[in-house]
Request: fold
Amino acid sequence: MNRAPPKPVADPERRRQINYAAAGLSLKSVMGGRDPLVMVNNGIYRVGDVISPPGDDVPIRFQVVSISKDSVRLLVEEPEYDLREERTLWVRGGPHRTR
Reply:
């Protein structure tokens, strides 16, 4: 039987880079409707779009997975490191939580 080689585990430095990049994201506004949009930092995004904050040698890609009336849920997946993390950004004044 052929088995795939095990994937390397994301090192603590990569997780630190992800946390640092996520801390630099700010949800400015949410625009509802049939195709909701969010303004994160200075960009406009919809579900399925990817946000890539500048400044890393190895880019971090946050995919927009859902938008609610006051938050956006982002997903970072790096299959090569068997890494999957979710983050929730809230509009200012909303609950201050990160997942």
Helices lie at 12-23. The longest strand covers residues 71-78.
